Amino acid sequence: MAANTIAKVQSGEKNKKEETDLKLSNRKDENFGDWYSEVVVSAELIEHYDISGLYILRPSAVEIWETLQAFFDPEIKKMNVKNCYFPMFVLESHMKKKKDHYDSFSQEVALVTKSGESTMDIPLAIRPSSETIMYPYYSKWIRGHRDLPLKLNQWCNVVRWVIGDPTPFIRSREFLWQEGHSAFATEAEAHAEALEILELYRRIYEEYLAVPVIKGTKSEVDTFGGAVSTNTVEAFIPNTGRGIQGATTHCLGQKFAEKFEVNFEDEKRDKTMVWQNSWGYSTRTIGAMVMVHGDDKGLVLPPKVASIQVIVIPVPYKDADTQGTNDACELTVKILCEAKIRAELDSRDNHSPERKYSEWEMKGVPLRIEIGPNDLANKQVSVVRRDNGAKMDIGNADLVEEIKKLLINIQQNMFNVAKQKRDECIQVIHTWDEFVEALNQRKMILAPWCDEKVVELDVTEKTTNEIGAAKVLCSPFDQPELVEGTKCFASGKPAKKWTYWGRSY
């Protein structure tokens, strides 16, 4: 073969590879941090912004957020929660009214100090959370027991100017969230709501994002600044051996009511303080989903949150009935959409089918339908699952019914696989040596604990190294039996509860 002919062949092969190869340059098991950063950009969830720690949320990310919002908003309205909106600026003096609350945010608060060329007389903080923005007005609006309960929620953004390396979705300097703020006449009402909201958060993660979580309470060290206690849904990332706080409900007791004079006259005409909660989940949900389900081909989306559940791709062959194939693809999309299945057609003629396969795998679309001349002749479609790569043929007559079954199966399978991987990482220990060994193996550690702050701080200090320290992830509501005489793994004192430990995001 002549040299110029070989060069042309090699050039053609190179161009074909460049056209079809959309593989990630990092592998999830080998370099998780770089893999994650690459996936969220390559799958078109985010684009980096000119300012470090700020990210552009692209339509695919916003559509996931809107899906979660479409579930959660009607559920809280059933609980008579009303939506509202408060300004994003707060007087720093208001934030400092509750010292432990302010201290929890003081290093992350962004201040506006200038207007044009003029220095402002009073600096304004950009909200890191809205307790100190909203509660002065709760004091104004709540007078008597008939004004209670007052339950408000807002869908908004917050700014927390984090120190260190930001991570898209997980720890960014601005993020979207919802934040609920409730006031009740009794502690029992407040406690009941906190648990009811936490169950909704569990459903977001497990039923929509297919991410298993554990419901529990945070330790005193990790309790929200100004709260009596913090409840959490805690996820775990097996590849990194790190827990991730998924969403929280904070029982504020009467601490903020005292500082902001949120009082009411009860039925006996006695003046007393309200009991309060605050609760929220954020776009961190999306990051947890990517971390748990993504693979070396890119994003893997659970069908419930995928804006495109089925992508239909024509597979033309030379001298075949191209128009017939295209018409079959269009009809397939039409039939699926009429059945309320989110389907789209990729009819681009400037990319090969192989290139399209790689692109839609990168974006995590749950199902791919391919239709070629043989499928046309056999009155069928070829279907490929994104979650496990399984391929099958489905007759046109059974298309809608079988696709619906597949989507349900994919959703459940993704949760089952994620739960199995998470559960394989859980290790029960009783001694300090067992704890250290499990931590080095990147486990989620379930250990008997004396529930003392000084002991947790000591564990954190002893385990601090270049990849982070161990901390309490949560004490689960579902407590295993604690045999009488069980000792705390770290202090040797009598254990009071079982608690999950590990490194955390």
Automatic annotation (TrEMBL):
Reaction equations catalysed: tRNA(Pro) + L-proline + ATP = L-prolyl-tRNA(Pro) + AMP + diphosphate
Keywords attached to this entry: Aminoacyl-tRNA synthetase, ATP-binding, Ligase, Nucleotide-binding, Protein biosynthesis
Top-level EC class: ligase
Chain ranges of the Aminoacyl-transfer RNA synthetases class-II family profile domain: 53-302
SUPFAM superfamilies noted in UniProt: C-terminal domain of ProRS, Class II aaRS ABD-related, Class II aaRS and biotin synthetases
Comp. bias intervals (Basic and acidic residues): 11-22
Gene Ontology biological-process annotations: prolyl-tRNA aminoacylation
GO molecular function, one term: proline-tRNA ligase activity
InterPro entries recorded: aa-tRNA-synt_IIb (IPR002314), aa-tRNA-synth_II (IPR006195), aa-tRNA-synth_II/BPL/LPL (IPR045864), Anticodon-bd (IPR004154), Anticodon-bd_dom_sf (IPR036621), Pro-tRNA-ligase_IIa_arc-type (IPR004499), Pro-tRNA_ligase_II_C (IPR016061), Pro-tRNA_synth_II (IPR017449)
Cited PANTHER family: BIFUNCTIONAL GLUTAMATE_PROLINE--TRNA LIGASE, PROLYL-TRNA SYNTHETASE
NCBIfam families, A to Z: proS_fam_I
The protein's name in its UniProt record: Proline--tRNA ligase
